[in-house]
Protein 1
Amino acid sequence: MTTRTLGIIAGGGQLPVIAARGARRQGFRVVVSAIAETRSTFPKKGAARLEFVSLGRPGQTLSFFREEGVTDVVFAGKVDKSLNFANLDFDDVAMAMIARLPGRADMNIAAVLIDELTSRGFHVRAQTDFLAELVAPAGRIAGPEDGAPEREKRIGLEVASALAAHDVGQTVVLRDGAVIALEAFEHTDATIKRAARLAGGDLVVVKMARPRQDLRFDVPAVGPQTVKLLSAAGAKALYVEAGKTLLIDRRKLEKLANTAGLMIEGVERPASVE
């Protein structure tokens, strides 16, 4: 039986490492193209081969994957949205991709990247194919039994779902049923910090995936750092979409939530906004 090779395009954080571990369990040989600008800390021993490649040089990654006999590709890890693209040195492949971009929205960039890889014979896989151990289940995950009042929870779910549907952001923060902050270009953690400055204490945070979330490129995630921020802000509940949210370092996340008295629950998307 021929061993298949998985190429991981790795951003920052631990997700690329966990994805590599999950792939090896499935019998894949793993090689990694780590995005240099993310300061990836992927360990050399974690892959059969590791290269650091600038985000502006996708042609280098394609050549690397071809040399290594890559059959399947997965994106994993964080790429900071504040990255200054103007400072990147773009190769010919990147310039051709930029010319096809209909806009700068995350999903537009993702679609062009995936199309480029697919057109060259690579099978781009969903992140959850290799990160299944991290996917949030439905129901209470950590913390006390009681979260937000049902009305406040419903408002948060409906607003967050509508926000995600317009590809604006995925997170909404409420207090006493009033919307305090909505995520736009910033990440979830920045939205929580802004809400804490505006109305700290008794915050309720809801994070939902886009209705057509492309799990090949972008899966919503929360981790210990988010829980620490919520605890510092005096939040009482965090709701995430079950089956479409990754729980990073789940054991530590649950311990922190239990200590802080923060209820975390996996929820389904409201039928009214599907």
Protein 2
Amino acid sequence: MELLVVGAGAMGRWLARALREDGPPSLQLSVCDVDSEAAREAAEALDAETVAPGTDDTFEAVCVAVPIPAAGEAIATYGGQAERAVFDVTGTMAEPVAAMRRHAPNRERVSLHPLFAPANEPGNVAVVADAPGPATDSARDALAARGNDLFETTPAEHDDAMETVQARTHTAVLAYALAAESVPDRFQTPVSAGIEDLVAQVTDGDAGVYADVQAAFDGAEDVASAAAEIADADRETFRRLYDEAGN
């Protein structure tokens, strides 16, 4: 299979490596990125070819692995250059699926969202199999062979879930980090130590990626409103909120 991976960031490199190691034995891999140095480094690490942005070449399959804000434009640019299949690992699903339908209407189309950073593989992978077929099945088989748990969903269900598991979660963790003061480790409780671990995990990532997630999904305002309600609560109101949180 001739595969073009559009995007040489962490997720694009991870997907390309997964298919290189566990995908079709005959895989011919090419990488494209607006950052030519990133594309060169990725191609060197993955035994792949580099392709200049805006190429007119066609490929059996195209995988779009760009930041969330660039997903629609990238699919519009490269979706039509897929002879057989186009899929994405961009992080949202409603917009990419709609863009693939529009720009690659007669191709296999699948949207994938690994719900983990590449370094934390294996994990859960959300899948919208909009128009599956042999080429996209081989990509899914490669991810499953690496121990990942792939499950099917819909664009709406996925994007709604991301409001909680990403936007609200990241807001809560970062808000704690901004509000917390440094204390000696001997004062840490199991709860506070656990939150500190989450802070370390979140802030070890890419700020731009987290910013894109916050912009893509609602939910942050809900966390701020809940925190304000707790801060202003009297004893009885707090007890009600505490019970509500546990249900």
